[in-house]
Design brief:
Blueprint lengths: L3 H6 L7 E8 L10 E5 L4 E3 L11 E4 L10 E3 L2 E4 L8 E6 L5 E10 L6 E5 L6 E6 L9 E9 L3 H6 L5 E3 L1 E2 L6 E4 L7 E10 L2 E10 H4 L6 E8 L2 E10 L12 E9 L6 E5 L3 E4 L8 E9 L13 E3 L5 H7 L5 H7 L16 H39 L2 H14 L2 H4 L2
Parallel strand pairs: 2-8
Antiparallel strand pairs: 1-16, 3-6, 4-7, 5-6, 7-8, 9-10, 10-14, 11-12, 11-15, 13-14, 15-16, 17-18, 18-21, 19-20, 19-22, 22-23
The structure holds 2-acetamido-2-deoxy-beta-D-glucopyranose (2 copies).
Length: about 425
């Protein structure tokens, strides 16, 4: 079970970092009969296996006597100094009588480069890494892919100091990728992707955490529908990507992008729901809509955009109605945003919440204005009163009395 505090930990984002790389020379058998591998730019020596010591031999290339420039026979062996790629081919050595003693196929190439590696998790249980070689070696190549788990919990650390080591499994049907199954969202992993060829090997280490590399697949089943009687509305719904296991602790949030087909710029709206009503569509214009997903707590990356879906909002009922004789009031109220010529600005969202917010803020504004007016009035009144008190009281009283007398009856009465 995942506790809420662990859930908070997911917000932390650890960036994958390339750590180290190295080249090692570990020649191995590549199971090819009669093939010799050589490194471009080095001196390559081909020995004549069947020759008797001391007896002269003759070397041929592809059956012809012409050998690469600079090559020399030394004690029966053919030496190709600073071998170039062009020196590759089939060589044969022959005895004095021209009899074939030995044939060797020379393949020349480079040491492996440090591969480029990137990792991605399309759900929170498994992650995959893919790689490409950084150098064309011209030689057969394979990859050794392993990981070491660095657990974040102290207990596991004490139990297993070095961390769990396992293979990143390679699927023959998907070249250049490997998968770590049942990975832990809270652990970090050090991937070791080693490129190996007959001349040597070269590895790249990559530190990753699920939080940083998670990238859901795009949502599926996107449907866009016009809303009856609402010329500016489109109802959009979609489903979780099938690859995302549904569990309350790992949810997705979404963003929607939409535009009339004839416009260039997208409007974007975010939601945590599996449906959304677009309220600022253009009546009668076909719209294109796409949706993408991200981990609910913002870990990792947004998915790619889903496949497009298209729909056209209903034609403006107001214009239709004005052509007829009667205007249906209920029809207008349903449509809510009655019919104007399409706004030139494609992005002009006005949902009911926004309107409410504007009304509320107007109300608050009016209240403050009234309050300010009241305060100012009171202050002026107080000041006037103080001022008049400072003057001779009898005079003041007289003035007041005359005032009172002058006032109409109705105002004196309480
Ligand atoms: C993760 O890998 C396991 C083991 O292969 C598999 O059973 C599981 O379905 C995978 N999870 C997802 C979401 O694909
Ligand atoms: C990476 O893997 C290769 C091949 O298994 C191994 O030779 C090399 O030592 C590893 N590097 C590290 C740093 O673990």
């Amino acid at each position: 079970m995942h506790s809420p505090t662990r859930g908070l930990g997911r917000v932390m984002v650890f960036l994958a970092a390339a750590l180290a790389s190295a080249s090692l020379a570990i020649p191995e058998g590549w199971g090819e009969e009669g093939v010799q591998y050589g490194q471009v730019g080095t001196d390559v020596t081909l020995s004549c296996a069947g020759a008797r010591a001391g007896s002269p031999v003759q070397w041929r290339r592809e059956g012809a006597a012409a050998l690469p420039e600079g090559s020399a026979v030394h004690q029966g062996a053919l030496v190709l100094p600073h071998a170039s790629l062009a020196a590759a081919g089939t060589y044969s050595c022959h005895g004095e009588d021209g009899s074939l003693l030995h044939t060797v196929s020379l393949r020349l190439g480079h040491l492996p480069g440090v591969p480029f590696v990137s990792c991605r998790a399309s759900d929170y249980e498994n992650f995959s890494c893919s790689w490409t070689s950084s150098l064309e070696t011209f030689l057969p190549t394979r990859y050794i892919t392993t990981y070491r788990k660095k657990s974040l919990t102290g207990e596991e650390k004490r139990r297993n100091k070095s961390g769990h080591v396992g293979p990143c499994l390679q699927d023959p049907s998907r070249a250049g990728t490997c998968t770590v199954h049942r990975s832990e969202f809270w652990s970090s992993y050090r991937l070791n992707i080693t490129e190996v060829n007959p001349l040597g090997s070269s590895f790249r280490l990559l530190d990753i955490t699920m939080q940083a590399i998670i990238k859901p697949d795009p949502p599926e089943g996107l449907v866009v529908e016009p809303v009856p009687l609402a010329p500016r509305r489109l109802y959009v719904s979609w489903k979780y990507p099938a690859s995302w296991p549904k569990e309350p602790h790992f949810q997705l949030r979404f963003r929607l992008q939409y535009r009339p087909v004839i416009h260039r710029s997208w409007s974007v709206v975010e939601t945590v729901n599996l449906s959304e009503v677009i309220t600022d569509a253009f009546a009668g214009l076909e719209h294109v809509v796409q949706v993408s997903a991200k981990d609910f707590l913002d870990a990792g990356n947004w998915s790619e955009w889903s496949a497009e879906a298209r729909a056209t909002p209903v034609r403006d009922p107001a214009t239709t109605a004005s052509e007829g004789t009667t205007t249906d009031a209920s029809l207008e109220s349903l449509a809510e945003e009655p019919s104007q010529a399409p706004n030139p600005e494609p992005i002009n969202r006005s949902d009911p919440l926004e309107k409410m917010a504007i009304l509320v803020s107007l109300g608050i504004f009016a209240f403050f204005i009234l309050a300010a007016v009241l305060v100012i009035t009171i202050l002026i009144w107080l000041r006037v009163r103080k001022h008049s008190k400072d003057e001779t009281k009898p005079h003041n009283f007289l003035v007041a009395a005359t005032h009172l007398k002058a006032l109409p009856r109705t105002q004196i009465l309480p």
